[in-house]
Design goal:
Strand order of the largest sheet: 2-1-3-4-5
Largest sheet: 5 strands, parallel
Distance between the termini: 102 Å
Strand content: 5-15%
CATH class: Alpha Beta
Low-confidence stretches: 189-199
CATH topology: Rossmann fold
Order of helices and strands: HHEHEHEHHHHHHEHHEHH
Number of helices: 14
Shape: globular
CATH superfamily: SGNH hydrolase
Length: 332
């Protein structure tokens, strides 16, 4: 005789789910989400590269005279310690002009020494590939004005204001569990970030990866998104009103990236849409075009198609620091 649970039922019997079982399960699920979210925000996200960068900025901002703002190309490509005057690289992974504007607007009153803003303006900077997204919203929500963003982007943008961080694509459940285990074992996220930076000296440019980066940035998107152009202008006018000089920079890209990007956007397009556009005249002190700084030495200076490795970062930082210092140092 088979006494298993399923075979013990008579054909006439009907299995019913008790309401309190369902309620208990739902309650346990919601509680688990809340607990994981609290753990992720307290132990993991407070140690993220964005938070560590901003915390360091908070300690030094009263003395900062030159501020660098951009995305990962600026973050990985420029070492502020090489610059002769007090400089801070306030660049973040996946940021754009909209996020940068709201952050800068909140911080300017607390930057009494700031005289120069160096703003990234690469081939992908005005692309719409992320203009409707907020990367790392838990960090950026302290700066963003969602009332203004709703008028600009519509109601769907509010999903980032109430996002469950450990379920997002950027952090993910797998990443959350791994990072939580690292915290339990006493590993420090800041040290892990340092290790990654040290390893980039060993990596070379890859033409396949460069092409993928171009597709990620440009394929199927508007290369000059009107919202990004608007907030780029807002940044420029914000600095003009505070008498802060603005310099725009194109960081070095690999020959593989530049070749693939020609199908979508070129530096000539940047000149036409931005640098020579009457809309922005008088708002940019000078543009520095370093896109082809290392055209024949990609395998030595590039980490991938659009990021410099350690050697490239050191060399490029010295070149940019000298160029900026020549234009901004006080006259004797």
């Amino acid at each position: 005789m088979n006494n298993s649970f399923i075979s013990s039922f008579e054909p006439s019997q009907v299995y019913s789910v008790r309401k309190w079982h369902v309620l208990t399960f739902c309650l346990a699920f919601v509680v688990s989400l809340v607990v994981c979210e609290c753990l992720n925000r307290h132990f993991i996200l407070t140690r993220s590269s964005n938070v560590l960068t901003f915390n360091a900025f908070e300690k030094e901002k009263k003395e900062v005279k030159m501020l660098l703002i951009g995305d990962s190309q600026f973050l990985d490509g420029i070492d502020p310690h090489i610059f002769p005057r007090k400089t801070f690289n306030l660049s973040f992974l996946g940021t754009d002009y909209i996020q940068s504007y709201f952050m800068l607007k909140r911080q300017l009153d607390e930057l009494p020494a700031l005289k120069v803003l160096v703003l990234q303006m690469n081939l992908h900077s005005f692309s719409s590939f992320r203009s409707d997204k907020v990367y790392a919203p838990v960090f950026w929500n302290r700066f963003l004005d969602y009332d203004e963003l709703v008028k600009l982007k519509g109601w769907p943008i509010l999903r980032y204001q109430f996002e469950i961080s450990f379920l997002t694509d950027s952090s993910g459940r797998k990443s959350f569990l791994i990072n939580l285990m690292d915290v339990i074992l006493g590993k420090n996220v800041q040290e892990q970030q340092k290790d990654v930076r040290e390893k980039v000296y060993l990596v070379s440019a890859d033409p396949v990866l460069a092409e993928r980066r171009v597709y990620f940035h440009l394929k199927g998107y508007k290369t000059f998104d009107v919202d990004l152009l608007l907030y780029f202008e807002k940044i420029l006018k914000l600095c003009r009103d505070r008498r802060i000089r603005v310099f725009t920079v194109q960081t070095p890209l690999s020959q593989y990236y530049l070749k693939a990007a020609q199908n979508y956007v070129t530096f000539r397009d940047l000149e036409e849409k931005v640098l020579l556009n009457p809309r922005f005249q008088g708002l940019i002190d000078k543009n520095f075009n370093y896109l082809e700084l290392f055209p024949q030495k990609d395998n030595y200076f590039q980490r991938d198609g659009d990021h410099l490795n350690g050697y490239g970062r050191d060399k490029f930082s010295k070149i940019l620091a000298k160029a900026l210092d020549d234009l901004t140092k006080p006259s004797s």
